[in-house]
Amino acid sequence: MTTARNPVDRPAAAPVPHLREVLGAAALASGLVLADGPEGALTSAQARDAAERWGLVPDGGAGGEGAGPVQALPTVVVLVDGLGLDQLRERRGHAPALRALLADSEADAREGRGPGPEAVTCRPTTTAAALTALGTGALPGTTGMVGYSVRNPLLPPASVGDAPDASDLLSLISWEGRCPDPRAWQDVPTIFERLRRADGPAGERPPAVTIGPARFAGSGLTEAGLRGAPHIGADAMESRAGHAVEALRRGVPLVYLYVGELDHAGHAHGWRSEKWLTQLERLDALVADLRRRVPHGTRIMLTADHGMVDTDDEHRLLITDSPGLLRDVACVAGEPRLTHLYVGGRDDAERAERAAAVAERWRAELGEQALWIGTRDEAGEHLGPLNERARGVTGDVLVAAAGTWVVLDPRVHANAVLGMPGVHGSFTGAETRIPLLITCV
């Protein structure tokens, strides 16, 4: 096994890799050209800088407009939904292929080469936000993908007498019901839409393909955050390596391969469960299969969208049990680890005043159960500066849960969510730390 190395040692002060850099850096390192996008999206220069820092291309290497590829290698980006670096490290005994990649990356980091095994994801640490950050190279404050769900932007502003109801919410995963067109509403171009081959337009030779469950083709989240590449449907995890190998042999430079089974098992059973371990072992077999079968000179990059924590009955906080938490809250969205609270009001000034009061009451009542509570005006500290689209759907108050606490509202959350053992969305290290494992075969 040969690990990609940068001929120049990684500076000690190099920034920790961010998920939003991964797809752009992988594209440039595979020999593709990335056009610049709008303000707030990853630029070609930023993608090239990440590729150089991570040892994917030599310093001063290729990738921008007008620059030819240097040591370009076809690349498979494996995105594992729900695999935090902390969880991988604790359970690496069950995953020999991943354990070897992790050990190689840790050794390189000790020697001052490569990025090391750790990257960070966006905040909130939830799939809709993170996959769109990966897909567009932009933070949630730019894309507007600020949680699992938001108050439907097609509704009029909340009124003082409104009460939270699930019908008021728009899921940024499914985009079901009356909702905006995901392509029009999330209009930041994706990395896939900005790519071209160095030798000209794609034509019948797409620069990239995506692989994952067949239902993802044309889904709301795909249209919002990952549009622009042909999708290869592969419902069985075990079949996805073969599809990736076929695409590489057809000359596709960049393959995006999605694995969601780990996240599903974590939500349903907890990430410490035997069922989660079963899915980790399946993932490990997929990685080993990829390494055996991809053409020589292929780069594999494995990362994740977020980590996960396990909760229990003692750490479930019900809003409906507290009159103080209910006061002035007209809508509850987001997810149990990163809750969006919307307040009613006659105008912006009244809503801002109510939001400040709600934030203070929640801080006083939750205390150390909350990691951070802030208003929409303060949310840019975590979500990235909020543009008009994001401000239009972000809660007036946001609540990030501490430890393994979750904030629940039985009027909004389904029974399956009320008892869900595996959760994510907040800002703890277990949720924000993700792996970035890079190898060349």
TrEMBL record:
A Pfam family recorded for this sequence: Phosphodiest
Organism: Actinomyces denticolens
Family annotation (InterPro entries): Alkaline_phosphatase_core_sf, Phosphodiest/P_Trfase
SUPFAM superfamilies in the cross-refs: Alkaline phosphatase-like
Protein name as it appears in the record: Type I phosphodiesterase / nucleotide pyrophosphatase
